[in-house]
Amino acid sequence: MKQGCLKIAGVILSLFIFCFTSAADDVTKNIVSKVIDNFDNPDEIGWSWAAKGSKFIMEGYPKVMLVDHVPMAIKNVYPDPDGGYKVLGLEAKFSRQGDNWIDIFPVNPEGEITEIPFPGIVSQVDLWVWGSNYNYDLELLLRDSSGRVHTLGMGSLYFAGWKNLFVNIPSSIPQTQVQLPRYKGTTLVGLRIRTRPTERVDQFRIFFDQIKILTDMFETMYDGSELATMSFDDAGSEAGGTETTSEDSGL
What range does the record give for the signal peptide (predicted)? Predict the structure, then answer.
């Protein structure tokens, strides 16, 4: 009887330790701010930017280019002695009013559409936007860890000059998975400018600077954690002819 009670007590203690450890992992955080793209060094990152308009976009538009400029708020916080500041500019025209939109998205060096991975568990995305009092809206396109794309409103563009816009990432958007690696993360698909039906669309321009995230970089380590993210395409130890073919597997 005494031994049975001891076994039960041992099980309860083990469950308590497990629950306490899991709870501790859930509340442990390492919140950091990371600049994803400040547009200042286009040759040092793995992407550039392109844009595409909806049905009534005028021929030759939208136009995208880097411009020598910087918001004063960024210049004060991130001083550059060489003055190599740049911002991303966009100009567009539509042939008629309505529910028009323009997507701004990253492309790889080959010009193919790509996505920018966000490290950690992201809680907020912000960027600087130069508006010119057009009654448009800005949206963030974010892909979650399961592959679904979410459209998150960042606010109205009805303002003049530079303004910092941000959006909090809802906890309902999955950024982890049960299987390893647990932190699969999210990716930036792009930005979308959507016009209001009654606003003029004959010509407008907008500028962006410093896409930044607030993210939790804490990750619980475990024995062999490096194996979760290794690539089988990497050069490594030879397995001695263990390549599987349909004949080997009997299929």
Answer: 1-23
